[in-house]
Amino acid sequence: KVTVEGEFATNDVNFGSADESYLEEAIYEVLLDEGVISEGAKVEVTGYVGGVITYNVISFTDAASDVQAHADSIASQITQSSTYTQIANVAQSLPGSTITSFSISAGVYLSTTGMPHSIGWWPQWNWGESTCENGGDIPSYITRNQQQYFSSSKRECCQQWFPYALKTCVGPTTGGSTVEYIVPNWIDRYCESKKEGDMEEYELADTFETIEECCKKRFSTSYSECCRGECVISTTKLYYPEYGKSVEGVEGEMLQHQLIFAEDSVQNCCSSNFWWLSQKECCEISGGCYT
Prior knowledge:
Layout: E1 2-10, H1 17-33, E2 42-49, E3 52-59, H2 67-78, H3 81-93, E4 104-113, E5 122-124, E6 131-133, H4 140-143, H5 146-149, H6 154-161, H7 166-170, E7 180-185, E8 190-195, H8 201-204, H9 211-218, H10 223-227, E9 237-242, E10 245-250, H11 256-261, H12 266-273, H13 279-285
Antiparallel strand pairs: 1-3, 1-4, 2-3, 5-6, 7-8, 9-10
Helix pairs in contact: 1-3
């Protein structure tokens, strides 16, 4: 069973309960003729407020079918302008129809129940829950603001909406027990790889993709020790400002605040960081501009 929910915007200010069955039949006939549903499917008009009609298309498919593709085909067909015109024409031409001067100006696909949602994960606040779901009965306010609410992974969704309950939100169902991230070990002051399912709450909120990134951001004062030979340490010479002069350093061993102001030569470091000194004065203080 697959349920696709959507909305139509209509110009019919007099649309009411007496018209619902005709619109349901019209939607059913158009989708059946287009081949996106089979006989036995069902269409329900679920509400009408301020010119907006909400509906459900309930379809059935066997377990071996591509359920997501089936749902997508329904959603794609029912949100086309040509389909709006067909539905409006059929609804007015049905025998005994009470629908007159009816047109559909716009439509939107709100949600799909019965399979994972192709857009991503969304926050579930129902009854105090702190979790993220993929698919299910997605509230219309979320589907109308997809860029704001949908995330590409459950973990990303949990980090954004439930940082206070990450362990509970991520849970064991996401594959968290096998996915590994880099986290800082604050006791021994180095960065290590750790399985998501074994992480503490505070660790889930402070993860990195690489050891280099973790060490630079969390243990910059002891970068080499943090890496423990696992980082690719650059040996490029750079020059950074310190104690009123330009100082030479090795990129892979420099601290984060030093890298921000570093340049590739004494001259450039002087120009960028000691603008109140002349080039000659800065070079002399720094031991000479040899590079």
